[in-house]
Design a protein that fits this description.
By secondary structure, the protein is an alpha/beta fold. It has two domains: 225 residues, Tandem AAA-ATPase domain (Rossmann fold, 3-Layer(aba) Sandwich); 213 residues, Rossmann fold (3-Layer(aba) Sandwich). 42% of the residues lie in helices and 18% in strands. The chain is built from 18 helices and 17 strands. The strands form four sheets. It has a seven-stranded parallel β-sheet, with helices on both faces. The chain has a six-stranded parallel β-sheet with strand order 10-17-16-13-15-14, sandwiched between helices. The chain has a two-stranded antiparallel sheet with strand order 7-8. α14 links the parallel β14 and β15.
């Protein structure tokens, strides 16, 4: 695909090229991954870096980074190896001919041990979801972050922190992240210095409260090494940003899914072609893609991949309310168990009023119950499709509840973000192809069947 960057993506890439050690704070859907890859590709082509390590949450490491690389045709100098899986698989990826290695945070201690004391070949590190670094302390902190700091300190020339929510729990989170950029130059050589200068202890003796001048001074000190991207500063609002978030099923869950899918294919070879979208096996495949399967006793959980991905979205929302669309009853049950603060959109008008007053952090809605006439735009602008169904009307209607037109009418000149959690290699992908109006349901299923054979 040809890359046509927006102005703010140019700004991201330019900042990473100009500043060897930098914080790029940009939310989900702004294209920060491809902007970062563009900077990496340029640095590799110029010979300014030779080997890059990308550290990310497991789901992001295993799918988002390689998928983005495969999507864009201008990234010609990157040879990416994804260092996840079993120890043998990780060793093979590490030994392969790559110049960009992507690994999850949990495997950093393993990487340091395998490379050996004093051997750190990466002259550039990208910490995706850099809030994972917030626990770092000179004399403590998590073992993964400590291992990364010890190995990379003094050996990595370029460092990039990527996140959309650098201070989701307050500015106290910033010191650990910033240390990797400047070793304490901006915020103090130790966490204690940072804390004592800009925070006071609460009445309970342990909670910390920001001083009246703390936010202004911390922001000013970090400004030279940070760029914050708000899409609304660059786009003609209102706009709608649609984003596909690929999730990877566990090997066991994928094996179970494929067994069910094969049974579906047998039915697809029958004569009742027009009834494909209502076939019971098709329904089961979509349910399994979201993580569960109905049984006589209720349902059986197969995987939590989508719940984990949604947790990432909620964290990156940094407190903004999130509207979550689900399809199956098992989805709703599992969502309520994982997200205790979530509220279900019901027939009580007060639920909508509470959402629009900003009192509900996560609203769970079935598209069929959130159709014509509901006004949800005051409550938020973030929509996540947890599971998928064929109905284009239901899909379009729930988007319109918070869509750009309603945002504008309500006096909210802000971008709307629609995130789709899509289980890779499953029927989710066929549903989206059909629902987007690209092909009919029948054609989507037939094409999907051919790809699987």
């Amino acid at each position: 695909m040809s890359y046509q960057p927006r102005d703010y993506q140019h700004a991201m890439t330019g900042a990473l090229l100009a500043h060897p050690r930098f914080n790029l704070w940009a939310g989900m859907g702004t294209g920060k991954t491809v902007a970062t890859l563009t900077a990496i590709d340029t640095l590799l082509a110029l010979g300014e870096v030779n080997r890059v390590l990308v550290v990310a949450p497991l789901r992001v490491a295993s799918s988002t980074w390689p998928d983005e690389l495969a999507k864009w045709d201008h990234l010609t100098d990157i040879r990416m190896q994804v260092v996840v899986g079993t120890p043998a698989q990780r060793m093979a990826a590490l030994a392969a001919n790559g110049n960009v290695h992507v690994i999850n945070y949990e495997n950093i201690p393993w990487l340091v041990e395998v490379l050996g004391k004093g051997h750190w070949p990466f002259d550039m590190v990208v910490a995706d979801e850099a809030t994972k670094l917030k626990s770092f302390r000179l004399n403590g902190g998590g073992s993964r972050v400590k291992a990364l700091a010890k190995a990379a300190n003094g050996r990595t020339v370029r460092w990039v922190n990527l996140t959309g929510t650098p201070a989701s729990n307050g500015l106290i989170d910033l010191w650990g992240q910033q240390w990797f950029v400047d070793k304490g130059e901006a915020l103090g050589r130790s966490f204690g210095m940072f804390r004592d200068r800009w925070f006071t202890t609460g009445y309970d003796g342990y909670s910390l409260k920001l001083t009246p001048y703390g936010e202004r001074e911390i922001t000013e000190r970090m400004k030279p090494s940070s760029l914050t991207i708000e899409a609304g500063d660059y786009l003609d609002l209102p706009d709608l940003v649609s984003n596909i978030i690929g999730v990877v099923l566990t090997p066991t869950a994928m094996k179970q899914y494929k067994a069910m899918e094969q049974e579906m294919f047998v039915e697809l070879d029958g004569e009742e072609v027009e009834a494909f979208n209502a076939a019971s096996k098709t329904i089961k495949c979509l349910q399994m893609a979201s993580g569960a399967l109905y049984t006589e006793e209720g349902y059986s959980v197969l995987h939590d991949a989508k719940l984990d991905a949604l947790e990432d979205v909620v964290e990156e929302a940094n407190g903004e309310p999130v509207l979550v669309a689900y399809h199956f009853k098992s989805d709703l049950d599992r969502l309520k168990k994982r997200f205790k603060s979530a509220v279900v959109l019901d027939k009580d008008p007060e639920t909508i009023r509470r959402w629009n007053r900003g009192e509900i952090p996560i609203l769970l809605a079935h598209p069929a119950s959130a159709g014509h006439g509901l006004n949800l735009q005051d409550g938020g602008r973030l929509l996540v499709f947890f599971s998928h169904w064929w109905s284009l009307e239901e899909y379009s209607q729930i988007i319109e509840r918070i869509g750009p037109t309603r945002q504008l009418q309500a006096g909210h000149p802000r971008t709307v973000y629609v995130h789709h959690l899509v289980a890779k290699g499953t029927l989710d992908e066929a549903v989206i192809a059909a629902r987007d109006g690209k092909v009919s349901v029948q054609k989507a299923l037939m094409d999907y069947q051919k790809q699987k054979r």
